[in-house]
């Protein structure tokens, strides 16, 4: 009798466990919101991607199609509509596509070939896959245009270098207090030349990798912050050569020729040519 009762209780426990696991029960960890609070969608409505994500999260909110259509006809962008209605931008875009309105951005100038590839409308005119495009222009031409804009204006070029040096210093955990105006004034004060070697002109050109004479920010006191008083502009090679040597001793050794000559870096032949940077007169 005892064995039959124990078998019966074990069978009931097994059935209960099967029911728990079939409902998404997990013995270790919390249940998901979709398991605790299932979503009820009205029948007859299409489940778009946004609504499916809401269903997974246990929400029953639907997209306000009428308000989205009215705001779109008023000339508002998808980002403005999402901020106004407190809705994700992907949901607004899917609602516009469902209503046949679409987004503002269209690739009218795209030349799609029969095999599915696209011809670039930029300077290269190459045929590439669709994933390598930003609109009707390929990513390579987009980067070349961006680099050309950086190199043709000295003020924009120095601004780009300043934010690059600042982000690199903060990524390492160093204090960076020098401002953009102080950085540009220091470049003009040094006449675009290295602090340790006045015969070396610092390179500001983008798109050619990292040459030895590229501009760099060096601290006179290695453990100090990147402040206006403790920071000088130099080249990458001189910054690496100095390391923790006293600036006065390093400069004297560099001018006297006691230090070894810097090695010439071999540049990879990319086939791309970029315009030279402007002079200080354009600043």
- Helices and strands: which structural class? mainly alpha
Just give the CATH class of the largest domain: Alpha Beta
CA gyration radius, whole angstroms: 31 Å
Order of helices and strands: HHHHHHEEEEEHHHEEHH
- Determine the mean pLDDT: 76
Which percent range fits the helix content? 40-55%
Please give the number of β-strands. Answer: 7
Instruction: Note the total helix count.
Output: 11
The low-confidence parts are: 20-48, 263-271
Any idea how many domains?
3
Described by the principal axes of the CA atoms, the overall outline is extended
> At the third CATH level, what is the topology name of the largest domain?
Herpes Virus-1
CATH architecture of the largest domain: 2-Layer Sandwich
List the helices and strands and how they pair.
Elements: H1 2-22, H2 33-36, H3 49-56, H4 65-73, H5 78-85, H6 89-98, E1 111-112, E2 118-119, E3 127-128, E4 133-134, E5 137-138, H7 139-152, H8 154-171, H9 180-189, E6 215-219, E7 231-235, H10 236-242, H11 247-256
Antiparallel strand pairs: 1-2, 2-3, 4-5, 6-7
Report on this model:
This protein has 283 residues and is mostly helical. It has 3 domains: 61 residues; 35 residues, no CATH class; 120 residues, Herpes Virus-1 (2-Layer Sandwich). The chain has 11 helices and 7 strands. Strands 1-2-3 form a 3-stranded antiparallel β-sheet, with no helix packed on it. Strands 4-5 form a two-stranded antiparallel sheet. A hairpin with a 5-residue loop joins strand 1 and strand 2. The chain is extended. About 13% of the residues have low confidence.
